[in-house]
Amino acid sequence: MNNIQKKYVITTCTCDFIMPFALVYLFYIILHGHLTPGGGFQGGVLMVAVYTLIYLGYGYQDTAVALRMDKLHHIEGWASIVYVLVAMLGIAFAGNFCQNILFSEGDIGELWSSGTIFLMNAAVGAKVVTGVGMLALSMLAVLNMTNKDFK
Question: Is the pTM of this model over 0.85?
């Protein structure tokens, strides 16, 4: 095994070690955004770190296979639909778009304590994760075209 192969093994193992911690942290930020600072947008943008870890550990080809652009596009569309449907619940039950109608469910400080805000926050997180994922994948494709000797 030469030095270049050793470097890739070390990089791959390090990325594999760090990735679960990054995923847990970003999903924590998304799911607890209505209780703490953070939310769907911040957690979604943090997902770029995971995309970058996949790229650094496995190269562009494996990243493109793992993060298929067409799947990201479909998930982004569904996240938009979910957001609008949850926001329309406010019109149906309270008369205002984005009205929080489930605020009486759950105890203060628990995951479901914010009602529809939690659902809208999760939909924003899914939309940002996929949208930023498509941007990151596009930038990595350009980087791969200009720097062929990096995996």
Answer: no
